Amino acid sequence: MRIDRGQIILLAALVVFGIASTFGGSMNPYYYDILIGIGINVILAVSLNLVNGYTGQFSLGHAGFMAVGAYSSAWITIAFGYVLGTSFFATRTSFVLSLVLGGLAAALAGLAVGIPSLRLRGDYLAIVTLGFNEIIKGVIQNAEPLGAQRGLGGIPLYSNIFWTFAVAAITIYVIVSLVNSTYGRGFLAVRDDEIAAEAMGINTTKYKVLAFTLGAFFAGIAGGLYAHFKQFIHPEGFGFLRSVDIVVMVILGGMGSTVGVCVAAVLLTILPELLRYVSDIPGLPAWMGQIADNRMILYSLLLIILMITRPQGLFGTARLGRKK
Amino acid sequence: MSEQLVEFLQQILNGLSQGAIYALIALGYTMVFGILRFINFAHGDIYMLGAFAGYYLVEKMPRLLGGDPTLAKAAAVLFLAMGICAGLGILIERLCYRPLRSRPKLTILITAIGVSLFLENGGQYLFGADPKSFPEIIVDQAFEIPASWGALSSLTILHSQVLVFGVTAVLLFVLRFIVLHTRMGMAMRALSFNPTAATLMGINTDVVIAFTFGLGSALAGAAGILTSIQQPSIDPLMGINAGLKAFVAAVLGGIGNLPGAALGGILIGLLEALTVGYINPTYRDPIVFAVLILILLVKPSGLLGKSTAEKV
Computed over its alpha carbons, how large is the radius of gyration of chain B? Predict the structure, then answer.
């Protein structure tokens, strides 16, 4: 079997994260929290980029898939975690299994969203995915075994630097290799001109559903990692605003640029923490501090200004800025 | 009347008065979509600004608008709030949407989401995140029809509900008049029928689009005031849910179709009230979105809309 450069980088990254993880325990818990947050956001943003950036289908419900993954994997570890025993390897095996199953559950949800997306585009699709997000949240809020409105607690702490960043590296590897493969060019064709793509014999339906399913799968795994890190999940944490967070990362980084999206995910995870310091600077006018406390004001301004001046994002190649 | 019937009629009544509000907001979505073919995500937040405009008008002008509620003062608050919202709508169009008019749809959609988030969070910053209590601008009384002689349950009709129906009906007739019988309305219809041809006929596109935004925003502002009369607790995030429901209403009726938006609003209001009354209040939002997805899958053109083939 031929090993290409991407696989070498992936392997090297996994080893580095494995070593880095052993130092995780001695880290300042505050920085540790931010670091894991970065990893999870990178997975979410890169997977959403497959749908929004590469395939050009505007999804506003990524947090919904994350919720499906988080709740399924958490429920699986809580309900069946003991089956394999309590040794280190047994718990880690059940953790990985629960992550994968959570991802598959989310992928199934992605399939369910992908099917209506065949008939809809642009604004309608955005609203329908948003609607799905709300429906998923509504179902969880009414599901008694998942803690309903109280949230689900008592999830064992399994996520660490290794698992989070290993999954992030695998996500990036899979999506980049997929899009750069001959097969994966179909995603870009669907984005650039759906009718022309269809005329060239590309099964646009299949590509759109695949993008949704795969994007949802990784979002589900990110949800699982999140659940096993925070140890407590609540339906409100997977609402519209969480989806917007992820969308802003993709747009800022540039739709269709994995590097840009990763950079944006890192920046936007650190930014709220930096703003916390800004609001503590003595002598700063009170209103500036208050604005710094509300990151969504800045995010929304960023979106508007970016769209008017640089619609392709910081690193983007997607032809959003092109006149029709 | 049996108690079940009274209960049912009460839910219908509540649904109708909520539906009237949705109808007013949905009209704005539908008008803008008819002309620009894009969904103004920020429209629900204009409704929120309408409620806050009313709140601050009474707050800042206590001698003129405060004190004992009279119908004249209520009307003044309503019209002023509508005017403020119309101005804001035109301003938003001018600053955020006009520079992007020739760009791909997705750019405008993202901008609209940005504007919406900005209004919500800017509102939280300016007005405070806590709910505010809307001043009493009309005297609300209940008019009760007992189910039977001496029965405990009765059908309650609030004066505010009657007012909501009345104002909504008047606004719908005014809108119908503007769209069908004025030059500006004719220009709006021409623009939504064929923008290129309309421009060639000498219609000033910028003015007509600004007018459309103003008109839609004024209706949303009126909806904000009417809601606040019924439920006096207002907060900067109240526009999100109402905006989404009204959007579903516009799609249900057939987006771009004015009578459809009004019909859709009423139907969504009824559906919500019946879900709350007979199924489970927590399903109120999911069920509305389920309707949206169903409509888009089964009949994307909506109840009254005409289906159009996409030209290549």
Answer: 20
CA closest to B287 among chain A residues: A135
Structure tokens at B221: 């502002």
> If residue B154 lies in a helix (H) or strand (E), which one and from where to where?
strand B154-158
Q: Which of B117, B125, B289 sits opposite A244 (nearest CB)?
A: B117
Per-residue pLDDT of chain A (324 residues; tens, 9 = 90+): 566 777 888 888 888 877 777 776 677 888 888 888 999 999 999 999 999 888 888 888 899 999 999 999 999 888 887 777 777 778 888 888 899 999 999 999 999 888 876 777 677 788 888 888 888 888 888 887 887 788 888 888 888 888 888 899 999 999 988 988 888 888 988 888 888 888 888 888 889 889 999 999 999 999 999 999 988 899 888 888 889 889 888 888 888 888 889 998 998 888 888 877 777 777 777 777 776 677 778 888 888 888 888 877 777 665 444 433
A235 contact partners, CB below 8 Å, separation of at least 6: A67, A137, A140, A141, A149, A151
- Alpha carbon of B142: minimum distance to chain A alpha carbons (Å): 34
DSSP per position, A102-136: HHHHHHHHHHHHHHHHTT--THHHHHHHHHHHHHH
| Cβ pair B109:A116 closer than 8 A | no
Shortest alpha-carbon distance between residue A2 and chain B (Å): 41
